[in-house]
Fold this sequence. Notes:
Elements: H1 22-34, E1 50-51, E2 56-57, E3 62-64, E4 67-68, E5 72-74, E6 79-81, E7 84-86, E8 88-90, E9 95-97, E10 100-102, E11 105-106, E12 111-113, E13 116-117, E14 120-121, E15 126-128
Parallel strand pairs: 1-4, 2-5, 3-6, 4-7, 5-8, 6-9, 7-10, 8-11, 9-12, 10-13, 11-14, 12-15
Amino acid sequence: MLEHGLKMRTKSVETWLDAGTIDDVLSTNRYYLDHGHASSHDTLAHNNSVIVSPSFIHPTARIENSIIGPYAAIGANCTIQSSIIRDSIIDDGSMVSNAIMEHSLIGCDVKIHDRPGILNLGDQTELSL
């Protein structure tokens, strides 16, 4: 590409964030939430729930009877019911009910029912008791 005239330049970065492991992804999520990427409390109105800052909840997510955060990121079109989720990322379209999760990474379109603990689940997984 350089031989064909591509111009390259360097640029200094203030923070280098890694995403090579689950711990790194969750650490990066905590950094972003601490640095201005959390949801505003003014926009959060979820049925009978407590949102602990910093957390991010997509506007299309539905949260009911749950405690979310700190350091939780809930994606688009997720449904969280009767659960406690902290230090975790729940990707788009996932459904969580009657669960207690921390330090977890959940893919898209995952269904979790009645499960406590630390979970690492890929897309379209279903897990229940």
